[in-house]
Amino acid sequence: MISRMGVVSALTMVSRVFGLFRDMFITAVFGASLLNSAFTAAFTLPSLFRRLLGEGALTAALMPNLSEEMEENGREAVFRLVNKTLSWLLVICVLITGLAYGVLFWIEESAVLENWIIGAGLAKLVFPYIVPVCLAAVVAAVLNMLGRFAIPAMTAIWLNSCMMLSLGIGTWLWVESEVQKMNFLCLGVLLGGLLQFMVPSLALVREGWRPRLDFSVSPRLRSVLFLTLPGIYGTASHQINVMVSRFLALDFNESGATFIYLANRLVELPLGVFTIAISTVIFPSMAQAIAKGKGVEFGKTYREGISLSMMLTLPAAVGLSMLAPEIVAVLFERGEFSAENSSSLSPILIICAIGMPFYAFVSIETRAFYSNKDTKTPVKGSTLALIVNIILSISLLRLLGRIEALVIASNTAIVVQAAYMHLRLCRLDLSLRLAEVMPSMLKYLVGCIVLAVVVGSLELVLDDVRPSIRLATSVPIGGAAYFIALRILKVREINAVLYLFGSKDRSY
User: Would you state the pLDDT for residue 174?
Assistant: First the structure.
């Protein structure tokens, strides 16, 4: 399992770095302008349905059914279920796209604020992205179930590469107006979506899959649908949280949505590399353990996932918080993105980073429930988070009058969700309590204190040097200090990380 995590982590790192380059390029071209904020808000819409119908609820419902189908009837039955799922998903995506266009045309014609008119126009360009990316998520889920983690982990690379290439062509070769450049960027989104579907599909064909339209309904498909429907609501609640923050920010000022988006993207880098990689690998393992009736193995896998995730996200949160000004300045302060923009983005990043471990916690908790075919509890947790976020977003924004209020609200909501879901998991199975990993957790916190002291000292010593040098010095030395501290404290989980980097110790 550890070697698989290493593959997924490495490829996810490449994907996230590509995504970071993409965001750096976009901010250099458009800055924190209204057009950039409108694109950020517009791209949220297809991303919402991608999570609803692709990466989130559907694949979560599909995974345990795929595992059971493989266990009971073999690979050919799995492929038949895949064809049925893809066929019906294609119909649903096309219908949703048609309905969305009707709504977007109405907004474009009736809206008063320029922000909303521009956002609706851009949303019309990027919304068809939901068709290939939702289909791609199903194909990726099958590949993961078959133990093929590399290709699915690379899908974001195709999107980011196409967006950068298309924007580059539009910027340097053909057009000059900002609107035309943005059109090229939207074209890159659509081309990237096609590649995201085509590349994993070819990999699945090599595994024996023969794609065909199949609109017949089987008991297993009904089971997928039964689990998907409440999962859709749960996933929608989380995505609505994201949309609430971005659209309130867009309404607050022309740069707010861009700042929140960039801060979230920086936080998603370590989350994607570590937590998403861990949860991607342990999800099929937990689902297979349940399918085989191995509850003890399920609990062990869950606790390992939580422990590894906290070991990596806690120091990442500390590092991002302490080095936020340097990170923002080095990555984004160029072109149309000014030093003043950097000063506005840094505190938002700090607050976002604080919430990172709780997002990691929820990610693994959710997959634990889905492995047990329990989609109702994540729905309740997401609903609770949605209510908390909406109430706090509106009230804190009015009280504080700053964009940071929206991030504080979303962080509070995820903390509440994590606590609720953990209590429900413990009620489901007492073996899922984290008493066994608490000693390791305390050691992680000691390591984070060491990290903070080392980075803080380096910041004082290097106060007069360029941000890039401070960053290049503080990150490796601070990271080394953290892992040395864990080694001294004899943290068993550290062997998993060392193994990924070439150690022959596989004792974890």
Answer: 65
pLDDT digits (tens, 9 = 90+) for 68-113: 888 788 888 889 988 999 999 999 899 989 998 888 888 877 766 6
Please report how the helices 295-322 and 339-354 are oriented relative to each other, as an axis angle in degrees rounded to 10. Answer: 150
52, 83 in Cβ contact below 8 A? no
CB 258 within 8 A of CB 348: no
In angstroms, the Cα distances linking 37 to 32, 42, 183, 264, 508 are 7, 9, 15, 14, 45
Name, in order, each residue with C-beta under 8 angstroms of 110's C-beta and a sequence gap of 6 or more. Answer: none
36 three-state secondary structure: helix
Query: Can you tell me the distance from the alpha carbon of 188 to that of 196, in angstroms, rounded to the nearest whole number?
Result: 12
SS3 content of the chain, % helix, strand, coil (to 5): 85, 0, 15
Among 235, 294, 253, 233, which residue's Cα sits nearest to residue 404? 253
| First vs last C-alpha separation in the chain | 10
Choose among 284, 279, 312, 311: nearest CA to 297.
284
Q: Which two tokens stand for residue 60?
A: 């979560």
Domain boundaries, the chain: 2-436, 440-508
How many angstroms from the chain centroid is the CA of residue 215?
31
pTM: 0.68
Q: List the structure tokens of 504.
A: 């022959």
